[in-house]
Amino acid sequence: MESLTKTRIWTYRVAFLAFVLISWELASGRIASEFFISRPSAIAEQFFAWVMSGTIFYHGAITLLQAVGGFLLGSVIGMCFGVWLGRAQLVAEVLDPFIMMFYSLPKVALAPLFVLWFGIGIDMKIYLTATIVFFLVFLNTYTGVRAVSREQVAILRLMGATERHVLFKVVLPSAITWVFTGLRLSVPYALIGSIVGELIASNRGLGYLLANSAGQFDTTGVFAALIGIMIMAFFLNATVKLLEIKAMPWRETNSSREMSI
Amino acid sequence: MTKHPDQAMTQSDNVTSPLIAFRNVGKQFIVKGEPLQAVHGIDLDVYEGEILTLVGPSGCGKSTLLNMAAGLFAPTEGEVFYRGSQVQPYNPAVGYMTQSDHLLPWRDVIGNIAIPLEIKGLSKSEISRRVEELMETVGLGGFGKSYPNQLSGGMRKRCALARLLAYDPETLLMDEPFAALDALLRMRMQIEIRDLCRRLNKTVMFVTHDLDEAVAIGDRCAVFTGRPGSIERIVDVPLAPDRNILHLRKDPDYRAITADLWEVLAPSIEQEL
Fold first, then answer.
1. What residues in chain A have their Cβ under 8 A from chain B's Cβ atoms?
2. A95 lies in a domain?
3. Is Cytoplasm among the key words of this record (chain B) (predicted)?
4. CA of A118: how far to CAs of A62, A71, A137, in Å?
């Protein structure tokens, strides 16, 4: 019964995709100019050519390196600060308005400054990405640490727990759900940081491939680059999801248990 | 140490000194800027090895007393003593069990029971040996690898109980631990908890809003009323220490005492009608 619905859903999905692609293919050159919307077959051909020549892998690797590097750097620092401020109430109170001010600043607006500071190399994109990711992970970690159940802490205290015990046995594990929410939110933003950095100044990476194709009025190339970006985003998301399940095995069982309302 | 004497020990002839003593205790909270008197003028002695039940309508400050005995906060009036000295924050001699079990959802049963042992700094092998024992004691055998959200209400209680016993506090504070269980399961847990506490010679303060439960479990029973909460009456439960909780309903003494205490409780309910 359940697998049957699943098959049906997948059938519909494939049908929907086919419908979109075929309409696009047919519309191209008839309803809209091929110059602007290209056509799926041409895009696939271009993408395949890039795969065969390794172009997509070369540029993809650069973008991936920047996204992952920035993601790791930003999330590690974000977690540390989140835990620290979550525990140090006074510091958090003092810094709050400044953090919020900086948080509301669109981080990509910092890109020109970062170019000045770090040049147009890979490191500039890593720092830009890290800045974006930092805030998302920091705020979530902070909230998670603050949201720790006071009762659970009290119960551990009665058992004779020290500050360290409380931190490692209750605070951090219970904040991990929040941390992962932050991490999952950060994945698309890490790609944004990496690619915006490339759009602004670079000669490598998928963002460069995109900008370069657009610069040559090559719509097909633009779409092919976008597909490369989409595929990368998909795999990054899937990786974090997988890590999430590995890190929190108690949640996996949540959907399989009996429901009680 | 002997059990609390079966025959009447009233407030006045306390030959032994109490383990926990509340002396004219009051507690005021500030709720939304308004002072709120939770309890007032409480004088209460808890003796070593006895099970003292606190019964009364919800919101009459029974839990507040437990919190003060645990040192989670201090009274605003009067003093709370434990073994003759004033209770300090986080009284290490007590274990706390509440209605929601506060198990850590990211640890399986074994991990949850192990926490107090880890805090004590026992070795890995010692911990797993003790945990194994405790799971047998509370009847959790075979559930070691389950996470709390996979357990039934009763199983979660057993797990919380095992965790409590793991660090072996001499006094157990129980705040309506079985309130969320169904009637039959609740009776089973009552039997087991009374058995266990008597076997291990634990001193217990047991808060409940269920008069039947208070009488069934308690050696003595303190009836609370009103807001601010105060003790209306403290009685010795005239039932054998090795009473059979399953068959209490037929016991005339049980029926008489519950009827008696009900009359004490009734006015405070009438007031709110």
1. 149, 151-152, 154-162, 165, 169-170, 173-174, 176, 248-250, 253-254, 257
2. yes
3. no
4. 17, 18, 23
**Distance (Å, rounded) from C-alpha B1 to C-alpha B56?**
30
- From chain B, the residues in CB contact with A170 under 8 A are 104
Q: Judge whether A227 lies within some domain.
A: yes
Pick from A159, A176, A249: CB nearest B115: A159
Residue with tokens 């990711």: A133
The whole-number average pLDDT for the span A53-79 is 94
Query: Which residue segment(s) compose the domain that A149 sits in?
Result: 40-246
Give the global pTM: 0.73
**What pLDDT digit, counting tens, does each position of A168-213 carry?**
999 988 888 888 889 988 988 999 999 999 998 888 999 999 999 9
What is the rounded distance in angstroms from the CA atom of residue A250 to the CA atom of residue B6?
47
User: CB under 8 Å to A6, separation ≥6 — which residues?
Assistant: none
List residues bridging with B54 in a β-sheet.
B207, B222
Tally A–B CB contacts below 8 A: 64
Q: Is residue A32 very low, low, confident or very high in pLDDT (cuts 50, 70, 90)?
A: confident
Number of domains in chain A: 1
